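Justification of resources, computational component.

The compute hours requested in this renewal are based largely on the per-chain cost of generating structure records like the one below. Each record pairs the submitted sequence with a full structure-token output. That output is archived, and it is also reused by downstream analysis tasks.
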Amino acid sequence: MLRRLTPVLLTLMVVALGITALAARPDDGTPRRSADFVVLVGAAGLRWDDVDPRNTPTLWKMAEQGAIGSLSVRSAHRPTCPVDGWLTLGAGNFAAWNGSRPGGGCPASGVTVEEPDGIGANLPDQPGVVAYNQDKLAWGATPGALAESVRCSVAVGPGAAVAAARPFGRVDRYESSLPADPAGLLGSCVLSVVDVGTVDDDDPAVRAAQARQADARLARVLAARPPRSLVLVAGVSDTDTPARLHVVVADGPGWDGGWLTSPSTGRSGYLQLVDLAPTALAALGRPMPERPFLGRPAMTVDDRPDDLRTAIAAPADADREAAAQRRVAGWFFTLLAAAQMALAVAVLPLLRRARRLAGPHSPAPVSRRVVAVVELLLIAAALAVPAALLADAVPWWRGHHAGWWFASVTALLIVGGTAAVRFTPGHDRTLGPLGAVAGLATLVVGVDVLTGSRLQLNGVVGYSALEGGRYAGLGTVGLGVFIAGALLCGGWLAQRVRRGWRPAVLVTVGGVAVVIVGSPYLGADSIGAIALTAGVSVAAAICTGGWLTVSRLAWATMAGLAVTIGFALVDLDRPAAERGSLGRFLAALGDGTGGLTVHRSSTSNFQTLVNSPLTVLALAGAALVWLALLQPWGGLLRLFGIYPAIRAAMAGTGVAAGLGGVLGGSALDVAGAAGALVVPMAALAALRVLDHSTDRTVPDGGRGGGEGGAGPSGGAGPDGARPSGGPRPGGAQVPGGPAGGAVPAGRLRSVDGEGSASGDAGGDGAAPGRPGPPAEDGVAAHPRIPGQVTPASTEVPAR
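The structure output for this chain reads:
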């Protein structure tokens, strides 16, 4: 009865862990009304390295009193031109200006602003811009949504007119330049948007002069600000490529000191441009638009240093790191893909010659030294991504040659990690390197997530705040490595216990991984958690051996669906502003706008598939597995037959990585990151299994088979190495072994010392008195004469 209930209990455990991880959400601390007036001050291109107490004293003093942060100015166009930034500010969603863009850059002409009545203004192009954003772009933004949410708004300057124009183009009150005394103008409406100029020159002296001029205009705004007002200052756009992080400062009641953050970033000190519109409405106590903003209201956290110079150094350093990350990440993944493909080519002849046959015409075995070197290179390749993640603990981006510093630090970490794996106890066992590498990778990514994902933010193998996709939790590459590492760790541990306990081990390890990936406090990736749940369910279903039968597939599918449905119901029950990605998608399906989400996801998948070097890694890894490792001579089928828990872990990794990438809009990136770890380890384990393919089973010294741990194989020592005088490749006789006669199946020892405590070869051998498992190539695994010299693939039963 208990055996029949096991799948049900395991399914319930996975479901409970998954829903628990995804449903719990931190209090978002949404701010309540705190101001009677809001003034949004924009300066295109303004960065933190433009701010100092001598050149920009007004902004410096405001930053000392208020809350500060780094602003990501992502829009629907890259780079975010000034007009795109102002439009995104007024839409509360990623928007872009239509019209011609020479060379993919910014529009050639300025914005047309008509002043027909001397009070307000009109933007004749605005209706066409609205139609362009809603019909042509994937975000469905409504330019002018912020202005439509208040009774009256003021715009000063052409950029501000773009942000404050209503969808039909009307600006309620408009001035082309800031008056000498703007008090009356700023107090005439609850919302004012002021353009204080652009900071865009490459010459440091000219740029400093532009920043000084913007600061002088800001001083006039602050001197004339209405009582009980919130003033937000933002560098609303980029002015060249590549993208940079920009200034954002909030000063007003309830915004005294601290870092700015929002639920859309989940990271202290970071805001998105799309957060400013909902922040203004929340401060005014106004309801959000019918179709919610993509951004979320900002708030403050209190862990900012007291010294402003020290505090400003953090966002300025983050800007430098993000810029360096963009330059380095491309060539790192390109080199990694090239190195792994070169290793794949080098491994092919070793696989063909690793299985040593008996007889005078057998090809000469490859030098042990060559094999050892290739094994170390495979370990190094598998550790490349975790080492690159750990390299961000060192501030390599501060050097003049940041790329070389990163390469040096990463190389040292790879060498150190490879040495640690090489000298780990049990390295000579077949699965020794696989378990050690998987454990190291899981440890590096897991500890980073548990400590706030600091290494992934703006990291080479993490995510960039400049991209505006993720600011906290587990990134695409980290998810792939963590999925692979966690499932391989689970499979390695499961292989070492009794067959009946393997599903419980895999579910336990996988369940912890699901919590880490899906918890909003940790990985904050609900899609990744759902995908990992499916992978864990598949792995648990087949880890005891056998095929993925219909019933096993049904239980695995039910577990994944149960987690998805359970979280969806919980997420839909939340207020619209607090829903996660799954809840927002289901709500969009309900109101008929789900097609935009599907369109964004499919567009993102296609662009990532075409442009990402991780696609090459995923395809190259799949080609090596399919065309080499899964061939009869490749060794992986033999590995899977001997170690079914490892087969289950690799199958689960494939399922989870594939689903996580496609559902998350990252195509094959998750699979590529997972393959960078799994494929080298699969090749190494296959080489070792083939190396032992002609080993002979020997009696276990008279002990009955069954419950004892698996001993050494065919003359192998306790660590899996061959003792002197043991069987040589080709089947030489084991000294001291019996000259003939059958050995009972229950008294045979494991093929290469990696069996489980159940005493079977790989954990799925026969119990005493029952037929043994089929040997390679379909030959029955009857007891053999240890000194027999025929090849393993043509062995005959001993008589």
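The two ends are 41 Å apart (CA to CA). The chain has 24 helices and twelve strands.
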